Amino acid sequence: MEAVSANKVLQLFNMLSKPDQLEIVDKIEKQTFKERWKLMDESLPDVEISEEEIMEEVKAVRYGSKA
User: Fold this and answer.
1) b/e map of 26-37 (b: 16 or more CB within 10 Å)?
2) Is 18 a member of any domain?
3) pTM score above 0.85
4) What are the C-alpha distances in Å from 66 to residues 29, 49, 59, 60, 61?
5) Which site among 2, 11, 25, 44 is 20 to 30 Å from 64 CA-CA?
């Protein structure tokens, strides 16, 4: 099978109806979720936070006070 370029895929995609485009987007999102999550997770710092700090933040959001 011949390889297809990303540009060709986008050209074909743009020829589809909007409902078909949305269906394709949904399928691509589902198929790439794990990899996108992994990339996002790797970009975020791992911050140790205590249960007490979590509760302070929850209360600040819930009751509008400063944490």
Assistant:
1) eeeeeeeeeeee
2) yes
3) no
4) 37, 17, 9, 5, 8
5) 44
